[in-house]
Amino acid sequence: MTEDEIRSRVRESYARTAVNQASCCGSSEAESAGKRIGYTESELKSVPQGANMNLGCGNPVALASLREGETVVDLGSGGGLDCFLAAKKVGEKGRVIGVDMTPEMIDRARQNARKGGYKNVEFRLGEIENLPVADGTADAVISNCVINLVPDKKRVFEEALRVLKPQGRLMVSDIVLQSELSEDVKRRMHPGSCVQGAIMKDEYLDMVRQAGFQEVRIVKSSQYGPKNLENDPDLEVTVFNREKNAEEVKRVSELVEEARKTVAIALAATISVDVLAIKPSD
């Protein structure tokens, strides 16, 4: 597929998610899934209902060392969960800008902001490869399980560098590969899957450095592997039915043997990482 085709399929998938309030994994247990990837119960209860759409793979706000009065830009802000958590950290004197390429997500995030009465959060429609944000705006740029979906990841990191102030921080939670996946396995994955666009861990970190960042390091990593899958037969995943040309939510235990093997292979190859990097001083 071309980059435009990939972008279009991801946008369509997340538009459906925004409208249906489903998660990328199909789970209705958003709170328990949120706790599993690093959110606390108090954090999840502090945001408007519907903001936690179970679309992340970490908690970048908890690791970004946000301070009162800072400006934060969230790449791929979804329903607004991380923006709302960041808003509490930076306070009334701070500002949070969420950017998402899906109009339906922007609408949902804005609705959530109104429900929560947030005055220091705004959501802008745009692609994270071409951020609708001025140079040197942000003290911190965050992102949660989004950059893996973008074909031109280096461009995203270059844009993050551009909108950051000198010594600004990049804090990204994302999915990377620790071993190569075959093209056949990737083709079988859901079009909006975090796995389909994931790249090798070292390649990912090199792209961050090539964009101009310094002090690039992984501060945390975790894996939901095949053993977890065996102990969680009710885990739900979104699969793409090519015959119906439509998405379907199924329990892993309901999948045919070949599909279960594909899920297990993908889980064994991927890890969630929290990457921190610093923009150099001028």
Structural features, described:
The structure is a single chain. The chain has 282 residues and is α/β, with parallel strands linked by helices. The chain has one domain: Vaccinia Virus protein VP39 (Rossmann fold, 3-Layer(aba) Sandwich). It has eleven helices and nine strands. The chain has helices spanning 3-20, 30-36, 41-46, 60-63, 81-90, 103-116, 153-163, 183-188, 201-210, 226-231, 257-269; strands at 71-75, 95-100, 121-125, 138-144, 164-177, 214-222, 236-241, 246-251, 270-278. Strands 3-2-1-4-5-9-6 form a seven-stranded mixed β-sheet. A two-stranded antiparallel ribbon has the order 7-8. The chain is globular and about 55 Å long. 45% of the residues are buried.
